[in-house]
Design goal:
The chain has 10 helices and 11 strands. It has a single domain (about 10-255), classed as Alpha-Beta Barrel (TIM Barrel). Strand 7, helix 5 and strand 8 form a beta-alpha-beta unit. The chain is of the alpha/beta class. The mean pLDDT is about 90. The protein has an 8-stranded parallel beta barrel, surrounded by 7 helices. The protein starts with 7 loop residues before the first strand and ends in a 9-residue tail after the last helix.
Length: about 270
């Protein structure tokens, strides 16, 4: 394409779409790849035994009561969640078929776990096949330092717009203010991508990304009108959605409507 680059699509929660039972399973990954999604989002958590697994929520029901994923070893978690994928198995599914959007949903001392998960993905897919996202400034800085030192073109995006639930109201206000004016956090993190809730992006974060010259990832865009807006070239680099089939259809329709280039003349 000439002009603004096409907007890429990341299939949210492993491409599960409207079916929570499928999220982050082999079936959902195959489904996302078959649709032609550019990236498949993998929700990565770390078990007590150090294994990396795909699981969106921090808790899962075990014997009728909620348990933290971080408190279970991988075998215990697999027994509670049939169809659970380890990170390395998911990467094997994607290899040669789609790129991985690693949404790191855990924190580890010194960000050693985040670096290990990133290295695992880079080994499987190559550095250009991996996007890493998290709201943890220290983890993004660690990934950036590691990738720069190794001359690896890994995209590491700092996420803004996460939940503020559970914090006192004054703290919530400060957190939202920091997200609308994120320059200090981005300088600290050394992120080379901006990852924003689509409402925050509209409220000003998209403008910050443009001024900073950083690719913008917006999440999670499912409404058809919002998808039409964000899938317009130049408004975002990547859109994360539970409706990748609609996003890809909108992109294809737009590209089919592009006027043909005039013929070259002497």
């Amino acid at each position: 394409m000439t002009g603004a680059r096409r907007v890429l699509v990341s299939a949210h929660r492993g491409g599960a779409g409207a079916d929570p039972a499928l999220e982050n399973t082999r079936e959902s990954l195959d489904q996302a790849v078959a649709l032609g999604a550019d990236y498949v989002e993998l929700d990565v958590r770390r078990c007590k035994d150090g294994a990396f697994v795909l699981c969106h929520d921090s808790e899962v029901p075990v014997d009728g009561r909620p348990r933290q994923v971080a408190e279970l070893d991988a075998d215990e978690l697999a027994a509670a969640r049939p169809g659970l994928l380890r990170l390395e198995d998911a990467l094997e599914v994607l290899a040669g078929r789609a790129r991985a959007h690693l949404d790191l949903k855990f924190r580890s001392p010194g960000s050693a776990g985040e670096l290990a998960a990133t290295a695992c993905a880079v080994d499987a897919l190559g550095p250009e096949g991996v996007l890493v996202t998290t709201g943890n400034v220290r983890a993004i800085r660690a990934v950036r330092d590691w990738s720069v030192a190794g001359h690896l073109p890994v995209l590491a995006g700092l996420t803004v717009g996460g939940s503020v639930a559970g914090h006192p109201l004054p703290r919530q206000v400060l957190m939202r203010h920091a997200e609308l004016f994120p320059a200090r956090r981005f300088v600290e993190s050394r992120a080379n991508a901006v990852v924003a809730n689509h409402w925050l992006a509209l409220a000003g974060v998209a403008g910050f990304a443009r001024r900073a010259g950083l690719p913008l990832v917006v999440w999670t865009v499912d409404d058809p009108t919002a998808l039409r807006y964000w899938m317009r070239p130049g408004r975002a680099w990547l859109v994360t959605t539970n409706r990748p089939e609609l996003a890809l259809s909108l992109r294809a329709n737009r590209e089919r409507r592009r006027p043909a280039a005039p013929p070259l003349t002497d």
